[in-house]
Amino acid sequence: MTNELAAATEANRVLEQSLNKRWYPTFHIAARAGWINDPNGLCYFNGRSHVYFQHHPASTQWGPMHWGHVSSADLVHWRHEPIALAPSVEEDSGGVWSGSAVVVDDVQYVFYTGNQWEGDGDGDAKIQRQMLATSTDGIHFEKQGVVIEAPGYSDFRDPKVWRMGDRWHMIVAASSQEGRGQVWHYTSDDLRKWEFERVIFEDPDPDVFMVECPDLFELDGRWVLIYGPMTTRRPSGYACRNGHNAGYVVGRWEPGAEFVIEEPYRPLDWGHHYYAPQTMETPDGRRVAFGWMGGFTLPLASQASDGWSGQMALPRELRLSADGRLIASPIQELDQLRRDSRNWESVTLRADEDLMLASDAAAVEVELELDLEASSAEQIGLLVHATPDGRGTWVGYDDQSRRIVLDRRTAVDRGVRSAPYEGGGVLRLRVFVDRGSVEVFIGDGAESLSSLSFPSDGPRAVVLSCTMGDATVNRIRVHQLDSGWE
Ligand code: FRU
Question: Which of 49, 79, 119, 339 is 20 to 30 A from 70, alpha carbon to alpha carbon?
Fold first, then answer.
């Protein structure tokens, strides 16, 4: 182990001593301790799926980036692995920033952005280069140096590499000289020598100055480009309200050509925390996305004294609907976590009536099928993370706005987000409640809402309720969920 990795591991071990697990995930990926952001280097290698992530092992704040690492044999049960990469050479002295991985025979190739702060590092000026590291076990890496030099301006990062035909392809996010968010395309025969092909995408929104963590793939016969548009504009309306927002466009693309947008930008998720998603192809050919639940802009309650910050959202299988929208549903393997399931059929609730579904529900999945046609209520839904002090997070249908609302009325980190509901008279919701988060999937995953939610002390209940009318509920299932740690 290098000195840098040894020091990072020791600092992380010390921080772990102070870990407060009240909000630490039971079935989501998080670091042993410390800060995490973007998922990196997703791949299947040596019989396991690997998720690396941006990691500050010594602190709950973003800082010099390392790559943390977890792996899994089934995409559900994860095990912590040693820290994979630490800043150790001049070109990555300011952090081993985000990137991706590919596997060729017995070798894993990891591409990341070497960040180097300019001057004394006080400002935002940086030199960003695309760098390579290789591994034969997915655990220990050898840095191979720079493969693409900095273009001469500051923001140039987050390489995503894939194979197509007989060539390797890479896209990199760049902020142009005019301050526009662009995606640059490179190709290679051997993963070491890369040729610049062209700019394949420039965000049509002139206020977007950077498109972080781009990912480009073919899905159901069309092309999808995922990215995180950074803008100076104030939020307005329901979408893009977070400090960092992830979304996608759908269109046409082929090597050598520009990406042609056919379906305009849409958010990937409507909650408070879903950013920097990266996708991988599973061995059986599914396109699965991991996204980060955390925040750069508002401090999180877990950062103050709990010794950790940030987790991954549940892995989501992506498909494309006939009208060119992404459908993101929790991967079916997650059903393995269910135990002690309880069912209710044909429940009618009068206005302002509550039905206790589970009195101790720290880690549960709730499946809910509501008959909106037969219901007169204006709001029908669940209070999750419902604690004895009366606080909780509300997830439900709101008939006035015709939206699905996630309203954190918890003791800390409050706030509302909502997603459009365009389905019919029967509304299906899947709600995953972990110790510090809530994820809501509408229908088959047409929309989702993902937010960290930090409940107060005491047991956390799930309660069904409605207001201003009756609710007809066809079916409710509450599954207690097992630990997702190996
Ligand atoms: C996105 C991001 C990336 C960068 C990394 C640094 O969240 O800003 O663009 O590589 O985080 O941690």
Answer: 339
Distances (CA, A) of 287 to 108, 131, 320, 328, 357: 19, 25, 11, 10, 34
38 is catalytic: yes
| Predicted pLDDT of residue 153 | 81
Q: Model's pTM, two decimal places?
A: 0.98
User: What separation in Å is there between the alpha carbon of 348 and the centre of ligand 1?
Assistant: 47
Find all residues with CB under 8 Å of 237, minimum gap 6, and list them.
none
User: Which atom, in ligand 1's list, is nearest to the CA of 113?
Assistant: 10
Residue segments in the chain with a per-residue pLDDT below the cut of 70: none
Cα(182) to centroid(ligand 1), Å: 15
Q: Rounded to whole angstroms, how far apart are CA atoms 86 and 11?
A: 13
Angle at 136 between CA 28 and CA 85, to 5 degrees: 55
C-alpha 321 – ligand 1 centre gap (Å)? 29
H/E run at residue 6: helix 3-16
Determine the pLDDT at residue 120.
77
Q: What is the pLDDT of residue 289?
A: 98
Per-residue pLDDT at 294: 97
